[in-house]
């Protein structure tokens, strides 16, 4: 490590079972890429910490050494002997094999990849096996990433603040400059590379004045330095850019994508950027959204806008990540025909087939905005001829802001496993964004990250699990929640069985617990405007953002049916459309997202809507009380510092969960006038 920040899951504690194993005494290397060098450094460090002695290292281009750990990157010079040991033809560019190879009466461990990145990922996998005590002989592992793009989106501003950040200040920027001490950036690169992340956009999608200049000579040398750190860990650097850059930086009077001067400006700009960073990843763009500039100003489409940028980046292999979070944020609450949920599909679906090959549309997991519960965006699978990728939110904007425990892997699993029926049964979102359903040139998963410069990176120590889990799912969306959780707990807190059982249960329950004391049955929002924390049922009800619950004395919910609502359900393929269209078949947890119903409507659970609201809000608070009790039981079993830190957060969570419960319950009690069946106090 380069800094004294929390090592998170790269915690290489001493492990007696690894001591004195002959093959762990020496590491040999074939290959010279920067990434294989990082792999070697990480392995030496990890093994030293875990075995208590420093392994010897040697270059071994011919693979002559036996009974060692051998890192091998494929190249033309690879000797026959080593070629035969690894099935390179089964590997993608970033895949790897880990194999036990019997030799000279002993055994070597081979970590091999086609690229340095592959070897790096394989090395982190090997380290995981050592950390969790799962290093056995007879290893036969072959892994290829399912998603090509595995990205982190930072919403960091150059003044050091982080939009929707809950873990301190930016690790990249301070006072409108790049930070000088790069230790945290290096450790950050290790952390995210260890879970397979291969792209990072370092600045906020809302690109303000100073950040607009990131693509100018003022900052490009600094950007290149960070890109250099990332490169060693196989990470491509991306920048969020201001669509109006030709005006703001280039002195042009337009940013019209069809204007030849604008196109020439971007081409020159791309040449300049690649002059500094030959492997620059590309641009992330938020256009025509929440007051950001975009092609609509010039009566052009989002295909026109993104293609212009794509054309500039194409000669260098760069890509344009174009966000689909485009909607009218100046709605009148009386206007029942405009539906924010429809916006992404309505804007983008008609443009299918018009985007260049190096544009990829980044679609938020749901049609609204990272709520604790919302349906899956119907845009997934709706554009066979346009590259798509999914955007998730690790930072807990609407899920407790890292004060509350809310493990999001279960939510992401539901999204990834959601069957769109785009090409019949079995067309899950995970297959679409992996480019398996339609042959996309670029696709994958991105997430808004939850780290800042807090000593533990994520504010809430247990929020590290979300970062870990996202990376693992981006690598392989078929990994089970249980498997990811077990890995993370063992890597982060060791192998105490009680610690495992308690943490496993807390993590597994936390999303539903959070959901139950906040907004009911898929309705979302009901938070304080602006910062989005804390209960405020009508916070957004009479404002322009298009996020309504329409509660009155009779009932609540948004009618999004084709029959007599906004027609949103028609954006799904028929199987899903039919399921959501009728309150009879609509799942309880999404009922109020799709339907306006009386408080007395009976759910599949057998409860009325109003009784569900009361019960779930009481139960949610009890859930948090149970977390505290269980966590209390771990005192002395994990280090005092982390124990106390989590306990402090849980206590805040409890106090705020009570407030949520009381505010929401009293609101609906007073609206509906219906008593709680159990006669509990409602304020
Ligand atoms: C949310 C969030 C904003 C963010 C936006 C986006 O609305 O509150 O801070 O800019 O999403 O994803 O662009």
UniProtKB/TrEMBL annotation:
It is an enzyme of class 3 (hydrolase). The keyword Hydrolase applies. Gene3D superfamilies: Alpha-glucuronidase, C-terminal domain (3.90.1330.10), Chitobiase/beta-hexosaminidase domain 2-like (3.30.379.10), Glycosidases (3.20.20.80). Residues 8-126 form the Alpha glucuronidase N-terminal domain. It catalyses: Hydrolysis of (1->2)-alpha-D-(4-O-methyl)glucuronosyl links in the main chain of hardwood xylans. InterPro entries: A-glucoronidase_C_sf, GH, Glyco_hydro_67_aGlcAse, Glyco_hydro_67_aGlcAse_N, Glyco_hydro_67_C, Glyco_hydro_67_cat, Hex-like_dom2. Homodimer. This is Xylan alpha-1,2-glucuronidase. It comes from Paenibacillus cookii. The lineage of its organism: Bacteria, Bacillati, Bacillota, Bacilli, Bacillales.
């Amino acid at each position: 490590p380069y800094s004294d920040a929390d090592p998170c899951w790269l915690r290489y504690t001493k492990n007696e079972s690894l001591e004195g194993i002959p093959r762990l005494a020496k590491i040999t290397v074939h290959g010279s890429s920067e990434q294989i060098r990082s792999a070697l450094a990480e392995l030496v460090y990890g093994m030293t910490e875990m075995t208590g002695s420093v392994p010897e290292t040697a270059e071994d281009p011919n693979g002559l050494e036996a009974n060692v750990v051998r890192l091998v990157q494929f190249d033309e010079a690879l000797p026959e002997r080593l070629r035969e040991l690894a099935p390179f033809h089964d590997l993608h560019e970033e895949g790897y094999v880990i194999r036990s190879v019997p030799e000279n009466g002993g055994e070597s461990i081979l970590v091999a990849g086609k690229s340095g990145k592959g070897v790096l990922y394989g090395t982190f996998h090997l380290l995981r096996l050592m950390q969790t005590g799962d290093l056995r002989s007879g290893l036969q592992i072959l892994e290829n990433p399912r998603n090509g793009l595995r990205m982190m989106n930072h919403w960091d501003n150059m003044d050091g603040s982080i939009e929707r950040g809950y873990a301190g200040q930016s690790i990249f920027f301070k006072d409108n400059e790049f930070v000088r001490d790069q230790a945290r950036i290096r450790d950050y690169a290790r952390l995210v590379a260890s879970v397979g992340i291969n792209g990072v956009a370092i600045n906020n999608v809302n690109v303000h004045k100073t950040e607009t200049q990131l693509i100018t000579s003022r900052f490009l040398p600094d950007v290149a330095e960070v890109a250099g750190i990332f490169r060693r860990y196989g990470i491509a650097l991306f920048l969020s850019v201001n669509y109006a850059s030709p005006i703001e930086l280039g002195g042009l009077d337009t940013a019209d994508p069809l204007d030849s001067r604008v196109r020439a400006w971007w081409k020159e700009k791309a040449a300049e950027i690649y002059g500094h960073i030959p492997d620059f990843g590309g641009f992330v763009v938020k256009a025509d959204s929440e007051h950001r500039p975009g092609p609509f100003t010039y009566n052009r489409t989002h295909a026109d806008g993104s293609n212009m940028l794509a054309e500039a980046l194409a000669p260098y292999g760069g890509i344009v990540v174009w966000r689909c979070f485009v909607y009218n944020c100046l709605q009148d609450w009386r206007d029942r025909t405009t539906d924010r949920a429809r916006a992404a599909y309505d804007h983008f679906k008609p443009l299918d087939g018009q985007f260049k090959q190096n544009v990829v549309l980044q679609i938020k997991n749901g049609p609204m905005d990272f709520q604790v519960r919302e349906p899956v965006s119907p845009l997934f699978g709706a554009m066979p001829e346009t590259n798509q990728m999914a955007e998730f939110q690790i930072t807990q904007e609407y899920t407790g802001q890292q004060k509350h425990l809310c493990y999001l892997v279960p939510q992401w699993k539901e999204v990834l496993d959601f069957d769109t029926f785009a090409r019949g049964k079995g067309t899950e979102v995970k297959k679409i964004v992996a480019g398996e359903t339609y042959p996309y040139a670029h696709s994958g998963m991105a997430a808004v990250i939850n780290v800042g410069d807090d000593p533990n990176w994520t504010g809430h120590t247990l929020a590290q699990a979300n970062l870990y889990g996202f990376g693992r799912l981006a690598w392989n969306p078929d990994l089970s929640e249980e498997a990811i959780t077990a890995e993370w707990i063992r890597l982060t807190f060791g192998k105490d069985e009680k610690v495992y059982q308690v943490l496993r249960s807390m993590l597994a329950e936390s999303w539903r617990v959070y959901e139950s004391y906040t907004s009911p049955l898929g309705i979302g929002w009901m938070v304080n405007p602006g910062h989005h924390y804390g209960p405020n049922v009508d916070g957004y009800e009479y404002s322009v953002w298009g996020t309504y619950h329409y509660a009155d004395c009779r009932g609540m919910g948004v009618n999004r049916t084709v029959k007599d609502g906004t027609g949103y359900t028609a954006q799904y393929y028929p199987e899903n459309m039919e399921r959501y269209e009728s309150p009879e078949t609509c799942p309880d947890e999404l009922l109020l997202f799709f339907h306006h119903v009386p408080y007395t409507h009976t759910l599949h659970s057998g409860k009325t809507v109003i009784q569900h609201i009361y019960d779930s809000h009481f139960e949610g608070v009890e859930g948090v009380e149970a977390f505290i009790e269980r966590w209390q039981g771990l005192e002395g079993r994990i280090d005092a510092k982390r124990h106390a830190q989590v306990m402090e957060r849980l206590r805040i969570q409890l106090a705020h969960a009570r407030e949520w419960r009381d505010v929401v319950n009293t609101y609906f009690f007073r609206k509906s006038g219906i008593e709680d069946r159990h006669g509990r106090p409602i304020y």
